[in-house]
Amino acid sequence: MESHAAGRAWRSVLPADLAASAIAMSTEVGERLCAAELAVPPHNAGRAVLFGQLDCSLPEQDWARRSHSHLTAAARTVEQTERGVLGLFGGLCEMAFAAHALSRDGTRYQRLLTGLDGAIATSAAALGRTVARAPAGLPFAAFDAISGLAGIGAYLLCRKDEPQAEAALRHVLTGLVGLCGESEGLPNWHTPASVMIPNTPMSRSYPTGVLNCGLAHGVPGPLAVLALAEMSGISVPGQRAAIERAARWLAAHRSDDEWGPNWPTGIPMPDATGAPPRAYGPTHNAWCYGSPGVARALWLAGTALADPELGALAVDSMTAVFRRPADVRRIDASPGLCHGVAGLLQITLRFAHDTGEAVFAAAAATLTSQLLAMFQPHRRFGYPALTENGTATDDPGLLDGAAGVALALLAAATDAPPEWDRTLLLA
């Protein structure tokens, strides 16, 4: 299916009254996050991004000053911590992305960004070269969207017009191309049991190792970044073939249900006997794992390759999400971006913008109403985050916490482009 987004401005898809309610809720969450002041240092960058987005929509309020103070606090935190951690969530790229997002088209924070880019570029290029030399059998953190090459590449792509960032980006892309290759009939992005973190849900579920299918930690992340780079005019040898290979592998390893295309958390590696791996059913329908995140990566791949078959599969996968009963989607307990309703809303908004199809605008309105109903006024930030064991915590951050929920509500309700969702590898 062809994208209709080229040259079209971002527009809210919500009815006016629902949009007003979503903006009011985002403002309420922002005020609560401000009331926490700077007491939760690791999450200052995410809050700064939210306050900057609030400033775009509500410039008459005081959000610009608040955004600046939280970015400044985040920069101080980076100076006091280990600068070798690069990740897009919890590392230098998180801080750098926030500064870039708030730079007002390069008119602010240039000294900060130059210093961060220097540190990031050197380490990112080294990691890209390391992965290119030995791309097979790596832990998720080497290549994923959270800590690894995919997330680092997503940030560097924002900075592609800066020479040192572009040079590092090419090394990262070369590493990801190698990762998307094959060795001895096995995709290089497989993760053996020997390099998985012991006693985690993933290691217990896949004792022989896994080919991860989640956008957060699996091959859809590298696929999305390679496709975004291709669409941005940045390409390295083998890039288009790598996009094609990873996309076709995902298309071939679906775990469909009665409502349509779906995906498992991962595909188990064969055991020592060579017996076929046990089949796994679909996982939940979220950003981190499941068909919404995979569908977005396939949409980007189809756009980059001008492949209507991949685009059609992506749209069919997303429409199937809304054919499923809500309890089958298995995300309704969590409001957040990572594995909750806000993440599904943000992906849905991107499909609504790119395709213009009414099914996605209607679904976005339903998800927005659901998020508004999930607000818990007795919680510190209104929207609690859920841990793996289901415990609710008061998290102010972007990926799991209240800042991310407010950002998704603003994306649905306003005409301010949600460029922040590059951190989710969505656009």
Automatic annotation (TrEMBL):
Source organism's superkingdom? Answer: Bacteria
Quote the InterPro entries the UniProt record gives: LanC, LANC-like
- What's the short name of a Pfam family annotated to this entry? LANC_like
What name appears for this protein in its UniProt entry? Lanthionine synthetase C family protein
Q: Which organism is it from?
A: Nocardia iowensis
